[in-house]
Write a structure and sequence with these properties.
Layout: H1 9-22, E1 35-39, H2 51-69, E2 73-77, E3 79-80, H3 84-97, H4 107-121, H5 124-132, E4 142-143, H6 147-162, E5 166-176, E6 181-183, E7 188-204, E8 210-215, E9 226-229, E10 243-245, E11 252-257, E12 269-272, H7 278-287, H8 313-326, E13 330-343, E14 351-360, H9 366-374, E15 380-382, H10 386-395, E16 400-401, E17 403-404, E18 414-416, E19 424-426, H11 430-441, E20 452-453, E21 457-458, H12 460-464, H13 467-470, H14 481-486, E22 491-494, H15 499-514, E23 521-524, E24 528-529, H16 546-563, E25 572-573, H17 576-597, E26 601-602, H18 609-634, H19 638-661, E27 669-670, H20 671-688, H21 693-703, H22 725-747, E28 756-761, H23 771-778, E29 780-785, E30 793-798, E31 801-806, H24 813-838, H25 841-846, H26 849-876
């Protein structure tokens, strides 16, 4: 294979991904090996790749590729989620653009359009993940609406219903008027918004007196059925037994007394609208109040809205205030900040609404899930600060509203045979439902056409909470070989925003249906933000297109750029320059490979001592770094692991090791050194492969003719041997000696081609093992260990060791002495100014401790510099 001058990321990515796919490296089947399993957090089927997906899936790919290299049977199951609300909204919008209303279609007709949309747009995101290098087992790709996945959901619903854990109830729910469906409590996002507090006067029936109430929603007065006052509020004791008149609609309503009312808020009088507030509903239940729902499902007003019928609630708010003012019912209006519930999906303002819905009892179901994380630590969250969030949610859990007024999703398997609210049965099929209905009614004449299935669909999360089990057929066939082998899975990588929506619920389902955890570790990523700390979004225009980034910097560059700043749970301040750094790193590795590849190798020349010690040092350094990496992976510090590899390759391998072993100009390298250098490079490639799969496979395949069984993707992860810590420490010291030599050469304009002598007073008793390296990298003719200072020499220190370079006419002594004296004068002046500050009691007593420490360090540095200059001057005399 010819070697390009530059690494061609685009060509390499396509070539090696096709090669990996062709050789089936991503596919897994149960065997004798230890399984390592990850299930993808399924993205929306109609979604496209964004920066959050990039981060999340890069982390998963790093974990799965490393597991593969460590000899495990790595299985990464990909798939997509049908995303009921989001997908149905897109289909409805498409139909509307075509002049078709959903309401004019049958369910079957609508679902045909939905499947056409899904077939056209679904799976785009999975294809995009391939561009990133994700090594998923594509043969196992699942969709939450696949036949077997839907059957699993229905089977679970029926089972939970038969256990008495699912029930149907008429409850106050969160209504999304844009999606026209109910939402669970967890899907409502509360935002602080600037609003108004309206003080409205209600006349007392049969009196000239009025009572004033305060409300943020004047449009809901048309649904008022009472005014409530605290029984301890003496201001209004005289109103007991009285009635009030609702403005505009002139409905007469009772004045009730209940200690629920806060006497300090507003006026102390509360208007009660049981159909539109959960607390008002409880008051209504206690006092047998009427319930008047004034809204249609799209939050326009219905016939109870009188002349506002058909108008949007927020338009009515503005108009009704004008009408109330004209009628003299507004006492005053104040600015008021309140929390407004919005839909997590559509961003619409939520309406509390009374509705028949299906609920899952959660109180007992959560207990094993709580214990697994908070007590036994059978499941660990990374970082563990999210344990508190998890604990709070599970301790305050409420029954889960699992029904949605949608057609896209698994239809609830409840079949009604009559008009009564309890005239239904629950079964996996309509045939089973018919038999149950016949038995329940004792009516053998019932036929399938007498049954009508509940029109609602199940919450999408009710499907995805089965994901780790259902993708392996664990609900329908719990004894199948895949499920028994791959479950429980190992690691889950997801965002903290769905810790409750998805993670906690999967844990709940896992224990309920298998008695086991669904996974062992949960790695919670941060949110990708821009440099201004804003969350990346299309609406802000601050989110780059991931595919554009890959085109510009290569997949490896983007992966490195993301991961270098991605510590678990911490938000990422994304800067495109990070990807450029990743691309530069790829180029550095490529150039190092080209350098080695360009050397002529000789069997006949002996191995230099400098190369021998260099190899021993680098192998020790690699072992030490490998141990660090293993520890960081155990703690899910992937960013730290990558940084350790980055420093090993960039600093130790490219900047030091290759310089130490590089043969002279147009000279060959000995075979022993070359062979060990190739081995070191291959070890580097293995460590880098999970992070930079394309570049590493490219170089790996260039290094030797490899069969498919010898591809890097399935090679062996390096193993840890004993690290020679002394050798590493000795090199650190030697590198400072070399740095000192290079500094003097630069400062004194001594060309590198000119050999110099080096004489050492070895106060530190430093090792001499790296002398051959110092000689080579410093172009030193000889190193002599002496006991006394050398006159007429340049000098520097490393710790307490003194190094002398006899000048031998290489520099002008008089000019050097003058230069040093000038530098000494300046440094003494600087020292005096620092000491003046430190002797000033006012400064020392008033300045922060860090400032004082900084000044003391300046003093110490100046003293050390003066000592060095004075020593240099002494040596030149």
């Amino acid at each position: 294979m010819s070697i390009p001058a530059q690494f061609d990321a685009k060509q390499s990515e396509q070539k090696w991904y096709n090669y990996w796919m062709k050789n089936n490296y991503f596919h897994s089947e149960p065997d004798h090996r230890t399984p390592y399993t990850i299930v993808i957090p399924p993205p929306n089927v109609t979604g496209v790749l964004h920066m959050g997906h990039m981060l999340n899936n890069t982390i998963q790919d790093v974990l799965i590729r490393r597991a593969r290299l460590k000899g495990m049977n790595a299985c990464w199951v990909p798939g997509t989620d049908h995303a009921s609300i989001a997908t149905e909204a897109k289909v409805v919008a498409k139909l509307k653009a075509e002049g078709i209303n959903k309401e004019d279609l049958t369910r079957e007709e609508f679902l045909k359009h939905a499947w056409e949309w899904t077939d056209k747009h679904g799976g785009i995101i999975l294809e995009q993940l391939k561009k990133l290098g994700c090594s998923c087992d594509w043969d196992r790709t699942k969709f939450t609406m696949d036949d077997d996945m839907s059957a699993s959901v229905i089977k679970l619903f029926v089972d939970l219903y038969n256990k008495g854990l699912i029930y149907r109830g008429y409850r106050m729910v969160n209504w999304d008027p844009e999606a026209k469906t109910t939402l669970s409590d967890e899907e409502v996002i509360y935002e602080e918004r600037q609003g108004k507090l309206y003080f409205l006067n209600y006349k007392i029936e049969g009196s000239t007196e009025s009572v004033t109430i305060a409300t943020t929603r004047p449009e809901t007065i048309l649904g008022d059925t009472a005014i409530c006052i605290n029984p301890n509020d003496e201001r209004f004791a005289h109103l007991k037994g009285k009635k009030a008149i609702v403005p505009i609609c002139n409905r007469v309503i009772p004045i009730i007394f209940d200690d629920y009312v806060d006497m300090e808020f507003g006026t102390g009088c509360l208007k009660v609208t049981p159909a539109h507030d959960v607390n008002d509903k409880e008051l209504g239940n206690r006092h047998n109040l009427d319930i008047i729902d004034i809204f249609n499902e799209n939050a326009t007003l219905n016939s109870y809205g009188l002349h506002y019928q058909g108008k949007d609630r927020f338009l009515v708010r503005d108009e009704i205030v004008i009408e109330l003012e004209s009628l003299g019912h507004i006492a005053k209006i104040e600015n008021h900040i309140n929390k407004v519930g919005t839909s997590e999906r559509t961003k619409a303002v939520i309406e509390p609404r009374l509705s028949d819905q299906w609920f899952l009892k959660m109180e007992d179901l959560v207990k094993p899930a709580f214990k697994a994380v908070m007590e036994t630590e059978e499941i660990k969250l990374y970082p563990n600060r999210f344990n508190n969030t998890y604990k709070h949610w599970l301790e305050n859990i409420r029954d889960w509203n699992i029904s949605r007024q949608l057609w896209w999703g698994q239809q609830i398997p409840a079949y009604f045979y009559g008009d009564g609210k309890e005239d239904y049965v629950v079964a996996e099929s309509i045939e089973e439902a018919l038999e149950l209905a016949k038995a329940k009614t004792n009516n053998p004449q019932l036929a399938i056409h007498n049954l009508k299935q509940d029109a609602d669909a199940l919450d999408t999360w009710f499907s995805s909470w089965l994901w780790p089990m259902a993708v392996f057929g664990g609900i329908l066939e719990p004894e199948n070989k895949d499920f028994k082998y791959y479950y429980p899975t190992n690691d889950l990588v997801t965002g903290p925003d769905i810790l409750f929506f998805w993670v906690a619920r999967m844990i709940i389902a896992g224990y309920e249906y298998t008695g086991e955890k669904p996974f062992t570790n949960v790695y919670l990523t941060g949110i990708v933000r821009d440099k201004q700390r804003r969350k990346m979004s299309k609406s802000l225009g601050n989110s780059p297109d991931p595919l554009d980034l890959i085109e510009k910097y290569g997949a490896d560059g983007v992966r490195v750029g993301l991961l270098l700043s991605a510590s678990a749970g911490n938000d990422i301040m994304f800067d495109e320059e990070l990807c450029n750094n990743g691309k530069a790193f790829a180029n550095k590795i490529w150039n190092a490979f080209k350098l080695i590849n360009g050397w002529e190798v000789s069997d006949s020349i002996p191995q230099p001592e400098s190369s021998k010690i260099a190899i021993a040092w680098y192998e020790a350094k690699l072992e030490k770094t490998l141990a660090e990496i293993e520890d960081q992976f155990e703690k899910y510090r992937l960013s730290d692991a990558l940084m350790a590899i980055y420093k090993l390759v960039w600093d130790d391998f490219c900047s030091w090791f290759l310089e130490m072993i590089k043969p002279g100009y147009q000279q060959p390298i000995d075979k022993v050194t070359y062979t060990r250098a190739i081995a070191a490079l291959e070890a580097n490639l293995k460590l880098l492969h999970p992070f930079m799969p394309f570049l590493t496979e490219e170089i790996w395949q260039h290094l030797a003719e490899r069969s498919p069984e010898q591809a890097l993707i399935i090679s062996e992860w390096p193993t840890i041997a004993n690290t020679n810590a002394n050798l590493i420490a000795d090199f650190e010291f030697a590198s400072e000696v070399i740095a000192g030599l290079r500094t003097i050469r630069k400062d004194k304009n001594i060309p590198f081609k000119e050999e110099i002598e080096l004489k050492v007073i070895n106060h530190e008793n430093a090792s001499k093992e790296f002398d051959s390296v110092i000689i080579k990298l410093g172009n030193v003719s000889s190193i002599d260990y002496i006991s006394e200072q050398v006159n007429g020499a340049l000098t520097y220190r490393v710790k307490s060791n003194e190094y002398f370079i006899p000048i031998s006419g290489a520099i002008n002594v008089e000019e050097e002495v003058a230069k040093l004296q000038e530098e000494l004068k300046y440094t003494n002046g600087f020292l005096n100014s620092v000491r003046a500050k430190l002797s000033n009691e006012k400064f020392v007593s008033g300045a922060p401790e860090k400032v004082i420490e900084m000044e003391r360090k300046k003093e110490a540095d100046a003293l050390a510099k003066i000592a060095t200059i004075e020593q240099s001057l002494a040596s030149l005399k």
